Amino acid sequence: MLLLVVVLTIPVQSLAEELMFRGAIMPALASWVRPVAPALVFGVLASSPVFALSHFAFDPWQIAYYAFLGVCFAAMAVISRGLETSIALHIANNALTSILNVLFAGGGALVLDRSAVPGGPHLLVPVPFFLAALAFVWWRERRGPVAGAAAR
């Protein structure tokens, strides 16, 4: 039952975070800077710590991990000129980690106490996957529109 709840609610939660942080907070912070390129950089770098702090993690490793995710999601939104890719990756990340947490809970309660669970180098494991996803989005956007996309 808990697995069903996770599968049904994670997309809504991830979508809401992306709309709030990349769709609202990042552009609002970027609007404080006039030149476009510095505004983008400022928006990405200023919204990512806010994203990290919103997860109520107190461990430096976890804060760094969430800030890194925030930078990746923000960069994807900027590179793709939309929120679709960052929403999709955010859903995939949260769904995968939540499903694994439920499966490894052994039928018990799923408690995520970020203040009690220490972070560590194991948080670096997904970093190459996020960097690969970011590189793929960058490569795909440089190639131009998909054939037949203009006809839609």
TrEMBL record:
The keyword Membrane applies. The chain crosses the membrane at residues 32-51, 63-81, 87-111, 123-139. The keyword Signal does not apply. It comes from Saccharopolyspora gregorii. This is CAAX prenyl protease 2/Lysostaphin resistance protein A-like domain-containing protein. Keywords: Membrane, Transmembrane, Transmembrane helix. Residues 2-96 form the CAAX prenyl protease 2/Lysostaphin resistance protein A-like domain. It comes from the Bacteria.
